[in-house]
Amino acid sequence: MTETNIPIASPVFGDEEAKEVVKVLKSGFIAQGSKVLEFEKQFAEFIGTDFAVATSSGTSALHVALLSCGISEGDEIITTPFSFVATGNSILFTGAKPVFVDINEDTYNINPDKIEDAITDKTKAIMPVHLYGQSAEMDEIMKIAKNNDLLVIEDAAQAHGAIYKNENSVFDGKKIGSIGELGCFSFYPTKNMTTGEGGIITTNNKEYADKAKMIRSHGEKERYKHSILGYNFRLTDISAAIGLVQLKILNEFNQKRIKNAEFLNKELANVKGIKTPKLNGNSRHVYHQYTIAVENRDEWIKFLNENGIGTGVHYPIAIYNQELYKNLGYNDNCPVTEQMTEKVISLPIHPKITENDLKIIVSKLKEASNLIG
Ligand SMILES: *Cc1c(COP(=O)(O)O)cnc(C)c1O
Protein backbone atom coordinates (compact mmCIF):
# COMPACT_ATOMS: atom_id res chain seq x y z
CA MET A 1 0.00 0.00 0.00
CA THR A 2 1.29 3.45 -0.88
CA GLU A 3 1.61 5.99 1.86
CA THR A 4 -1.34 8.35 2.22
CA ASN A 5 -0.81 11.82 0.80
CA ILE A 6 -3.97 13.90 0.48
CA PRO A 7 -3.08 17.56 -0.10
CA ILE A 8 -5.34 20.34 1.21
CA ALA A 9 -5.52 21.98 -2.23
CA SER A 10 -4.71 20.99 -5.78
CA PRO A 11 -5.59 22.86 -8.99
CA VAL A 12 -7.10 20.66 -11.71
CA PHE A 13 -6.03 21.17 -15.31
CA GLY A 14 -6.78 19.12 -18.40
CA ASP A 15 -5.16 19.13 -21.84
CA GLU A 16 -7.48 21.90 -22.97
CA GLU A 17 -5.90 24.60 -20.78
CA ALA A 18 -2.47 23.69 -22.17
CA LYS A 19 -3.77 23.76 -25.75
CA GLU A 20 -5.41 27.17 -25.28
CA VAL A 21 -2.29 28.64 -23.64
CA VAL A 22 -0.12 27.45 -26.53
CA LYS A 23 -2.55 29.05 -28.98
CA VAL A 24 -2.22 32.38 -27.20
CA LEU A 25 1.59 32.11 -27.11
CA LYS A 26 1.72 31.34 -30.83
CA SER A 27 -0.62 34.25 -31.62
CA GLY A 28 2.09 36.61 -30.34
CA PHE A 29 -0.52 38.63 -28.45
CA ILE A 30 -0.19 37.66 -24.81
CA ALA A 31 -1.07 40.76 -22.73
CA GLN A 32 -4.65 41.96 -22.10
CA GLY A 33 -6.54 41.52 -25.35
CA SER A 34 -9.32 39.53 -26.97
CA LYS A 35 -9.10 36.55 -24.56
CA VAL A 36 -9.56 38.85 -21.56
CA LEU A 37 -12.59 40.46 -23.27
CA GLU A 38 -14.10 37.05 -23.98
CA PHE A 39 -13.43 35.88 -20.41
CA GLU A 40 -15.08 39.01 -18.99
CA LYS A 41 -18.12 38.50 -21.19
CA GLN A 42 -18.53 34.87 -20.17
CA PHE A 43 -17.89 35.48 -16.48
CA ALA A 44 -20.45 38.31 -16.37
CA GLU A 45 -22.95 36.02 -18.06
CA PHE A 46 -22.20 33.24 -15.58
CA ILE A 47 -22.66 35.49 -12.53
CA GLY A 48 -25.61 37.31 -14.06
CA THR A 49 -24.23 40.84 -14.10
CA ASP A 50 -24.07 43.30 -17.00
CA PHE A 51 -20.32 43.83 -16.68
CA ALA A 52 -17.15 42.09 -15.51
CA VAL A 53 -13.69 43.65 -15.34
CA ALA A 54 -10.74 41.25 -15.08
CA THR A 55 -7.72 42.16 -12.95
CA SER A 56 -4.33 40.75 -12.00
CA SER A 57 -5.52 39.22 -8.69
CA GLY A 58 -8.41 39.03 -6.26
CA THR A 59 -6.63 41.61 -4.15
CA SER A 60 -6.42 44.08 -7.05
CA ALA A 61 -10.08 43.36 -7.87
CA LEU A 62 -11.04 44.46 -4.34
CA HIS A 63 -8.75 47.48 -4.50
CA VAL A 64 -10.05 48.61 -7.91
CA ALA A 65 -13.69 47.93 -6.93
CA LEU A 66 -13.35 50.20 -3.88
CA LEU A 67 -11.72 52.95 -5.93
CA SER A 68 -14.22 52.67 -8.78
CA CYS A 69 -17.13 53.54 -6.49
CA GLY A 70 -15.26 56.45 -4.97
CA ILE A 71 -13.95 55.07 -1.66
CA SER A 72 -11.08 57.22 -0.44
CA GLU A 73 -9.13 58.56 2.52
CA GLY A 74 -11.18 59.03 5.67
CA ASP A 75 -14.01 56.68 4.66
CA GLU A 76 -14.91 53.69 6.81
CA ILE A 77 -15.76 50.26 5.40
CA ILE A 78 -17.40 47.64 7.60
CA THR A 79 -16.04 44.13 7.13
CA THR A 80 -15.20 40.86 8.88
CA PRO A 81 -11.93 40.18 10.72
CA PHE A 82 -12.24 36.43 9.98
CA SER A 83 -10.86 36.42 6.43
CA PHE A 84 -7.69 36.48 4.39
CA VAL A 85 -5.74 39.66 5.11
CA ALA A 86 -6.41 40.99 1.57
CA THR A 87 -9.97 41.85 2.64
CA GLY A 88 -8.69 44.42 5.13
CA ASN A 89 -5.62 45.45 3.15
CA SER A 90 -7.59 46.36 0.02
CA ILE A 91 -9.47 48.89 2.16
CA LEU A 92 -6.21 50.26 3.61
CA PHE A 93 -4.80 50.75 0.07
CA THR A 94 -7.49 53.37 -0.62
CA GLY A 95 -6.74 55.32 2.57
CA ALA A 96 -10.07 54.20 4.03
CA LYS A 97 -10.37 52.43 7.37
CA PRO A 98 -11.58 48.85 7.74
CA VAL A 99 -14.00 48.61 10.69
CA PHE A 100 -14.27 45.04 11.91
CA VAL A 101 -17.53 43.43 12.99
CA ASP A 102 -17.67 40.00 14.62
CA ILE A 103 -18.94 36.84 12.90
CA ASN A 104 -21.85 34.48 13.35
CA GLU A 105 -20.47 31.37 15.06
CA ASP A 106 -22.40 28.95 12.85
CA THR A 107 -21.59 30.31 9.40
CA TYR A 108 -18.34 32.18 10.19
CA ASN A 109 -19.69 35.10 8.15
CA ILE A 110 -20.17 38.69 9.36
CA ASN A 111 -22.99 38.93 11.91
CA PRO A 112 -25.61 41.34 10.50
CA ASP A 113 -27.00 42.00 14.01
CA LYS A 114 -23.74 43.70 14.91
CA ILE A 115 -23.32 45.85 11.81
CA GLU A 116 -25.56 48.78 12.76
CA ASP A 117 -23.60 49.52 15.94
CA ALA A 118 -20.47 49.97 13.82
CA ILE A 119 -21.97 52.54 11.43
CA THR A 120 -20.75 56.14 11.81
CA ASP A 121 -21.14 59.21 9.61
CA LYS A 122 -17.92 58.14 7.86
CA THR A 123 -19.19 54.68 6.86
CA LYS A 124 -19.48 54.33 3.08
CA ALA A 125 -19.78 50.62 2.46
CA ILE A 126 -20.12 47.11 3.84
CA MET A 127 -17.76 44.43 2.53
CA PRO A 128 -19.12 40.99 3.43
CA VAL A 129 -16.93 37.96 2.71
CA HIS A 130 -18.67 34.77 1.60
CA LEU A 131 -16.30 32.68 3.64
CA TYR A 132 -15.37 29.16 2.55
CA GLY A 133 -17.83 29.48 -0.37
CA GLN A 134 -21.00 30.08 1.66
CA SER A 135 -23.06 33.23 1.14
CA ALA A 136 -23.23 35.81 3.89
CA GLU A 137 -26.70 36.86 5.08
CA MET A 138 -27.38 39.11 2.12
CA ASP A 139 -30.97 40.11 2.85
CA GLU A 140 -30.08 41.55 6.24
CA ILE A 141 -26.89 43.14 4.88
CA MET A 142 -28.62 44.73 1.86
CA LYS A 143 -31.40 46.05 4.10
CA ILE A 144 -28.95 47.70 6.49
CA ALA A 145 -27.07 49.14 3.52
CA LYS A 146 -30.25 50.55 2.01
CA ASN A 147 -31.43 52.08 5.28
CA ASN A 148 -28.07 53.73 5.86
CA ASP A 149 -27.24 54.69 2.27
CA LEU A 150 -24.20 52.40 2.09
CA LEU A 151 -22.70 50.47 -0.81
CA VAL A 152 -22.15 46.71 -0.63
CA ILE A 153 -18.95 45.31 -2.12
CA GLU A 154 -18.93 41.52 -1.95
CA ASP A 155 -15.64 39.75 -1.35
CA ALA A 156 -16.60 36.67 -3.33
CA ALA A 157 -12.99 35.46 -3.66
CA GLN A 158 -14.01 32.05 -2.31
CA ALA A 159 -17.51 31.78 -3.77
CA HIS A 160 -17.47 31.23 -7.57
CA GLY A 161 -20.86 29.74 -8.40
CA ALA A 162 -22.35 30.05 -4.90
CA ILE A 163 -26.06 30.91 -4.95
CA TYR A 164 -28.08 32.85 -2.41
CA LYS A 165 -31.39 31.26 -1.50
CA ASN A 166 -34.20 32.83 0.48
CA GLU A 167 -37.70 32.19 -0.82
CA ASN A 168 -39.09 35.47 0.48
CA SER A 169 -36.35 37.61 -0.99
CA VAL A 170 -35.85 39.55 -4.21
CA PHE A 171 -32.31 38.13 -4.13
CA ASP A 172 -33.53 34.52 -4.12
CA GLY A 173 -31.56 32.40 -6.60
CA LYS A 174 -29.01 35.10 -7.37
CA LYS A 175 -25.36 34.20 -7.77
CA ILE A 176 -22.96 35.52 -5.19
CA GLY A 177 -21.21 38.53 -6.70
CA SER A 178 -24.44 39.87 -8.27
CA ILE A 179 -26.24 41.10 -5.14
CA GLY A 180 -24.13 44.01 -3.90
CA GLU A 181 -23.15 46.97 -6.12
CA LEU A 182 -19.85 45.20 -6.86
CA GLY A 183 -18.52 41.64 -6.48
CA CYS A 184 -14.87 40.58 -6.44
CA PHE A 185 -13.46 37.14 -7.25
CA SER A 186 -9.97 35.61 -7.06
CA PHE A 187 -8.47 33.07 -9.44
CA TYR A 188 -5.56 32.07 -7.22
CA PRO A 189 -4.62 28.37 -7.72
CA THR A 190 -6.31 27.13 -4.52
CA LYS A 191 -9.67 28.75 -5.41
CA ASN A 192 -12.60 26.89 -7.01
CA MET A 193 -11.29 27.93 -10.43
CA THR A 194 -7.93 29.43 -11.35
CA THR A 195 -6.07 31.46 -13.97
CA GLY A 196 -2.71 31.14 -12.17
CA GLU A 197 -3.03 34.57 -10.60
CA GLY A 198 -6.02 36.71 -11.47
CA GLY A 199 -9.23 38.33 -10.32
CA ILE A 200 -12.45 39.87 -11.63
CA ILE A 201 -14.99 42.50 -10.63
CA THR A 202 -18.68 41.96 -11.39
CA THR A 203 -21.25 44.78 -11.44
CA ASN A 204 -24.44 46.03 -13.07
CA ASN A 205 -23.24 49.62 -12.81
CA LYS A 206 -21.72 50.89 -16.06
CA GLU A 207 -20.09 53.87 -14.40
CA TYR A 208 -18.23 51.63 -11.92
CA ALA A 209 -17.25 49.19 -14.66
CA ASP A 210 -15.86 51.95 -16.89
CA LYS A 211 -13.96 53.51 -13.99
CA ALA A 212 -12.60 50.08 -12.95
CA LYS A 213 -11.30 49.50 -16.49
CA MET A 214 -9.47 52.81 -16.36
CA ILE A 215 -8.00 52.26 -12.89
CA ARG A 216 -6.65 48.83 -13.80
CA SER A 217 -4.70 50.40 -16.67
CA HIS A 218 -3.08 53.67 -15.58
CA GLY A 219 -6.25 55.72 -15.70
CA GLU A 220 -6.24 55.38 -19.45
CA LYS A 221 -9.39 56.11 -21.42
CA GLU A 222 -7.78 56.19 -24.82
CA ARG A 223 -4.27 55.04 -25.67
CA TYR A 224 -1.76 57.33 -23.87
CA LYS A 225 -4.43 59.66 -22.55
CA HIS A 226 -4.47 59.44 -18.75
CA SER A 227 -7.18 61.28 -16.90
CA ILE A 228 -7.03 59.71 -13.41
CA LEU A 229 -4.42 57.90 -11.32
CA GLY A 230 -4.44 54.19 -12.04
CA TYR A 231 -2.28 51.09 -11.76
CA ASN A 232 -1.14 48.21 -13.90
CA PHE A 233 -3.55 45.57 -12.63
CA ARG A 234 -4.30 43.94 -15.98
CA LEU A 235 -4.89 40.23 -16.53
CA THR A 236 -3.00 38.58 -19.41
CA ASP A 237 -4.57 36.76 -22.35
CA ILE A 238 -2.54 33.72 -21.23
CA SER A 239 -4.38 33.71 -17.91
CA ALA A 240 -7.75 34.47 -19.50
CA ALA A 241 -7.30 31.50 -21.88
CA ILE A 242 -6.91 29.24 -18.82
CA GLY A 243 -9.88 30.95 -17.15
CA LEU A 244 -12.17 30.35 -20.14
CA VAL A 245 -11.54 26.61 -19.91
CA GLN A 246 -11.81 26.53 -16.10
CA LEU A 247 -15.11 28.45 -16.21
CA LYS A 248 -16.60 25.72 -18.41
CA ILE A 249 -15.66 23.05 -15.83
CA LEU A 250 -16.43 25.12 -12.72
CA ASN A 251 -19.89 23.70 -12.19
CA GLU A 252 -18.57 20.15 -12.37
CA PHE A 253 -15.77 21.06 -9.93
CA ASN A 254 -18.27 22.65 -7.55
CA GLN A 255 -20.61 19.64 -7.73
CA LYS A 256 -17.68 17.42 -6.81
CA ARG A 257 -16.80 19.65 -3.84
CA ILE A 258 -20.45 19.63 -2.70
CA LYS A 259 -20.65 15.84 -3.02
CA ASN A 260 -17.42 15.43 -1.04
CA ALA A 261 -18.74 17.80 1.62
CA GLU A 262 -22.05 15.98 1.89
CA PHE A 263 -20.18 12.72 2.46
CA LEU A 264 -18.07 14.27 5.22
CA ASN A 265 -21.11 15.99 6.78
CA LYS A 266 -22.91 12.68 6.99
CA GLU A 267 -19.98 10.61 8.23
CA LEU A 268 -18.77 13.18 10.76
CA ALA A 269 -22.18 14.22 12.10
CA ASN A 270 -21.88 12.21 15.29
CA VAL A 271 -18.15 12.10 15.79
CA LYS A 272 -17.33 13.41 19.25
CA GLY A 273 -15.50 16.72 19.38
CA ILE A 274 -16.11 17.78 15.77
CA LYS A 275 -18.37 20.65 14.74
CA THR A 276 -19.20 20.24 11.03
CA PRO A 277 -20.11 23.20 8.74
CA LYS A 278 -23.58 24.68 9.23
CA LEU A 279 -25.55 25.70 6.18
CA ASN A 280 -27.12 29.13 5.79
CA GLY A 281 -30.64 27.99 4.82
CA ASN A 282 -30.85 26.48 1.34
CA SER A 283 -28.13 28.63 -0.17
CA ARG A 284 -25.65 26.83 -2.43
CA HIS A 285 -22.38 26.48 -0.52
CA VAL A 286 -19.55 25.73 -2.99
CA TYR A 287 -17.06 24.59 -0.34
CA HIS A 288 -13.95 26.48 -1.27
CA GLN A 289 -12.97 25.10 2.13
CA TYR A 290 -14.52 22.35 4.23
CA THR A 291 -13.85 23.62 7.71
CA ILE A 292 -14.57 21.91 11.01
CA ALA A 293 -14.10 23.26 14.53
CA VAL A 294 -12.45 21.33 17.38
CA GLU A 295 -10.86 21.91 20.78
CA ASN A 296 -7.09 21.37 21.05
CA ARG A 297 -6.74 22.04 17.36
CA ASP A 298 -2.97 21.64 17.12
CA GLU A 299 -3.17 18.04 18.35
CA TRP A 300 -5.76 17.20 15.67
CA ILE A 301 -3.61 18.81 12.98
CA LYS A 302 -0.50 16.97 14.12
CA PHE A 303 -2.34 13.66 14.06
CA LEU A 304 -3.87 14.27 10.62
CA ASN A 305 -0.61 15.48 9.08
CA GLU A 306 1.31 12.52 10.51
CA ASN A 307 -1.23 10.33 8.76
CA GLY A 308 -0.74 11.99 5.37
CA ILE A 309 -3.82 14.22 5.44
CA GLY A 310 -3.19 17.85 4.52
CA THR A 311 -4.89 20.53 6.59
CA GLY A 312 -5.20 24.30 6.57
CA VAL A 313 -6.14 26.92 9.12
CA HIS A 314 -8.42 29.62 7.71
CA TYR A 315 -7.63 31.78 9.58
CA PRO A 316 -5.31 31.58 12.60
CA ILE A 317 -5.30 35.33 13.39
CA ALA A 318 -8.09 37.93 13.33
CA ILE A 319 -7.09 40.55 10.74
CA TYR A 320 -6.99 43.30 13.42
CA ASN A 321 -4.54 41.18 15.44
CA GLN A 322 -2.02 40.97 12.57
CA GLU A 323 1.17 42.86 13.38
CA LEU A 324 0.43 45.35 10.58
CA TYR A 325 -2.91 46.24 12.15
CA LYS A 326 -1.51 46.31 15.71
CA ASN A 327 1.06 48.81 14.46
CA LEU A 328 -1.75 50.88 12.97
CA GLY A 329 -3.34 51.07 16.42
CA TYR A 330 -6.07 48.45 15.98
CA ASN A 331 -7.21 47.13 19.33
CA ASP A 332 -10.48 45.36 18.53
CA ASN A 333 -12.07 42.50 20.31
CA CYS A 334 -14.38 40.22 18.35
CA PRO A 335 -14.80 37.27 20.74
CA VAL A 336 -16.45 34.83 18.33
CA THR A 337 -13.74 35.42 15.71
CA GLU A 338 -10.99 34.98 18.29
CA GLN A 339 -12.51 31.70 19.49
CA MET A 340 -12.77 30.39 15.95
CA THR A 341 -9.19 31.36 15.07
CA GLU A 342 -8.21 28.78 17.74
CA LYS A 343 -10.60 26.04 16.62
CA VAL A 344 -10.94 25.80 12.85
CA ILE A 345 -9.30 23.19 10.63
CA SER A 346 -9.87 22.96 6.90
CA LEU A 347 -9.82 19.46 5.39
CA PRO A 348 -9.14 18.37 1.79
CA ILE A 349 -12.32 18.80 -0.28
CA HIS A 350 -11.07 19.68 -3.79
CA PRO A 351 -12.26 17.85 -6.93
CA LYS A 352 -9.25 15.50 -7.07
CA ILE A 353 -10.23 13.88 -3.76
CA THR A 354 -11.37 10.28 -4.32
CA GLU A 355 -13.97 8.28 -2.45
CA ASN A 356 -11.15 6.30 -0.91
CA ASP A 357 -9.45 9.53 0.23
CA LEU A 358 -12.69 10.59 1.89
CA LYS A 359 -12.96 7.27 3.70
CA ILE A 360 -9.39 7.63 4.96
CA ILE A 361 -10.10 11.18 6.14
CA VAL A 362 -13.18 10.01 8.06
CA SER A 363 -11.45 7.04 9.65
CA LYS A 364 -8.47 9.15 10.75
CA LEU A 365 -10.80 11.80 12.19
CA LYS A 366 -12.58 9.09 14.15
CA GLU A 367 -9.25 7.85 15.50
CA ALA A 368 -8.33 11.43 16.40
CA SER A 369 -11.67 11.87 18.11
CA ASN A 370 -11.00 8.85 20.32
CA LEU A 371 -7.52 10.10 21.18
CA ILE A 372 -8.18 13.84 21.50
CA GLY A 373 -11.90 14.65 21.17
C1 LIG B 1 -7.94 34.70 -2.02
C2 LIG B 1 -8.67 35.78 -1.34
C3 LIG B 1 -8.45 37.14 -1.63
C4 LIG B 1 -7.31 37.62 -2.48
O1 LIG B 1 -7.22 37.06 -3.73
P1 LIG B 1 -5.77 36.96 -4.44
O2 LIG B 1 -6.12 36.50 -5.80
O3 LIG B 1 -4.95 35.98 -3.68
O4 LIG B 1 -5.17 38.32 -4.43
C5 LIG B 1 -9.26 38.07 -1.03
N1 LIG B 1 -10.22 37.73 -0.15
C6 LIG B 1 -10.45 36.44 0.18
C7 LIG B 1 -11.54 36.12 1.14
C8 LIG B 1 -9.67 35.43 -0.38
O5 LIG B 1 -9.89 34.16 -0.03
Comma- or semicolon-separated keywords:
alpha/beta, two-stranded antiparallel sheet, 2 domains, 11 helices, 373 residues, globular, Aspartate Aminotransferase, domain 2, binds pyridoxal-5'-phosphate
Structure description:
The protein starts with 14 loop residues before the first helix and ends with a helix. Helix content is 37%, strand content 12%. The model has no long low-confidence stretch (mean pLDDT 97). The protein has a seven-stranded mixed beta sheet with strand order 1-7-6-5-4-2-3, with helices on both faces. It has helices spanning 15-27, 34-47, 58-68, 86-93, 138-147, 206-215, 237-268, 297-306, 323-327, 335-343, 355-371; strands at residues 51-55, 76-79, 97-100, 123-127, 151-155, 182-186, 199-203, 220-222, 225-226, 290-293, 344-347. It folds into two domains: 15-102 and 109-248, 3-Layer(aba) Sandwich (Aspartate Aminotransferase, domain 2); 250-371, Aspartate Aminotransferase, domain 1, CATH 3.90.1150.10. The protein has eleven helices and eleven strands. It is globular, with a radius of gyration of 21 Å. Helix 7 crosses helix 11 (355-371). It has 373 residues and is of the alpha/beta class. Strand 2 (76-79), helix 4 (86-93) and strand 3 (97-100) form a beta-alpha-beta unit. Pyridoxal-5'-phosphate is lined by residues 57-59, 83-84, 86-87, 129, 155, 157-158, 186, 188, 199.
